[in-house]
Amino acid sequence: MSDLFKKYDIPAPRYTSYPTVPYWDDAPTTDEWVQSLNNALKQPKSPWSLYIHIPFCESLCCYCACNTTISRNHERYEDPYVKNIIAEWEAYLKSVPYLTKRPLKNIHLGGGTPTFLSPDNLRKMISSILSKVNIDRNDFEGSIEVHPNYTTDEHLEMLSELGFNRISIGVQDFNLNVQKLVNRIQLPKATKKTVDSAKRLGFVSINFDLIYGLPGQGQKEMALTMDKTLELRPDRIALYSLAIVPWIKPAQRLFKDEDLPNPEEKRALYDYAKQRLLEAGYVEIGMDHFSLLDEDLAIAMNEGRLHRNFMGYTDQKTDVLLGLGVSSISATPDCFHQNQKVLSLYEAQASKGLIPTLRGHKLTKEDQLVQSQILELMTKFKISFVDANQKQAVVKRLETMIKDGLVLVNGDNLTITEIGKSFLRVICTSFDERLLRAKPDSMTFSKAI
Ligand SMILES: C[S@@+](CC[C@H](N)C(=O)[O-])C[C@H]1O[C@@H](n2cnc3c(N)ncnc32)[C@H](O)[C@@H]1O
User: Fold this and answer.
1) Is the Cα dihedral 292, 297, 300, 302 positive or negative?
2) Of 103, 188, 438, 447, whose Cβ has the fewest other Cβ atoms within 10 Å?
3) What is the per-residue pLDDT across 145-180, written as a single tens digit (0 to 9) for each?
4) Atom 7 in ligand 1: residue holding the nearest Cα
5) Are 358 and 374 part of one and the same domain?
6) Does ligand 1 come within 6 angstroms of the Cβ of 64?
7) Which atom of ligand 1 approaches the CA of 114 most closely?
8) 371 & 413 share domain
9) Where are the beta strands (DSSP E) in 281-437?
10) Alpha carbon nearest to ligand 1 atom 15, residue
11) pTM value surpassing 0.85
12) How remote is the CA of residue 44 from the centroid of ligand 1, in Å?
């Protein structure tokens, strides 16, 4: 195994989208984007999903690769941001009237720390959107990412009242020594309090975000994180590989190399955690997620309905994802669209009632095919080749991986083996026609392990 880690721990995309963002090369104009949304929603009954990005955090977790604005100045940011989200939403209502007619299946609030906003401001923002849309209360998912240090019972009560039924708790690691190294002190009792409140309020699904590969994390630390996680028994767990991208996130330079596990040690942390979770009745979902056996994700996987989007694995596939807020990405079957990533630019455009387009991509027929194949690999660990030409080309690219036992080719089918699952992202690169045509000429993706 050690040799395999040396050979295949290379930069590779996480494939939360295809084409991956650095390869977007044919941006729609804002009008074309609106047209694409209207076309997708024109289909009768087509449901859609909504993502709202709230970038604010009171303090910087130095591993974090997300789009954040660090501040304690609630007065400066809260009211204007809520106003801008509402203005952006109204701009969409004017140009995409179908949004009010088609069922909204799920809404997800991510960050940053969405509960940086006060309960009143969050309520104002969510209600002004939900009051205009069509929701089937029996088939609706409302979810939010929370940091226990900044989440009150009042936040959770308000969210539950508005129909939110899932929460995702940022935990990362339960050890104080690791928490100090990443500048995120979060006492286990704070996490437990959030779990208890969510259960009391009837949230049907609780997710923990954990990370493996953090500085100071060894087998002993992972054992404690697993003990504490299993005591609280969340329904789902995302166990992310630490993505190290200091050229994008300079705060990651605060880690000392000697504090980080090497690739083999890092993967051993995942394997250890996986073993503990499987023994405790969880099932592995795709690449880095776990859920209890009777949870929707596990059911979707068993029924072949598992899906993956910008937020990770989900059982709720809709053709349309609308993203509001700074840096948010939206998607239709033939287009991606991203909002301005710099807060001041987002504010300048949204406050004028404009759709704050930064960039996007119009998918070609080839993109759509590769997208569906990479999605198959990420959710089912196997695919069927489209034709003999593709089989011949891919088998040639994967020759070494086939010899190393990571991939099996049988007739027209390709299956990723148990060992191969550790290298899923690298295997997917053999299908990534855009990456194969032009390798990035600077540091772009984190390493695969
Ligand atoms: C958008 S963040 C949500 C932050 C949340 N408010 C919290 O409590 O920190 C979603 C998750 O991404 C994961 N994440 C952030 N940076 C990461 C990195 N560099 N590598 C791997 N996972 C990361 C963390 O597990 C985090 O909880």
Assistant:
1) negative
2) 438
3) 999 999 999 999 999 999 999 999 999 999 999 999
4) 170
5) no
6) yes
7) 6
8) yes
9) 282-285, 289-292, 307-309, 312-314, 320-324, 329-332, 335-339, 357-362, 382-384, 407-410, 413-416
10) 64
11) yes
12) 36
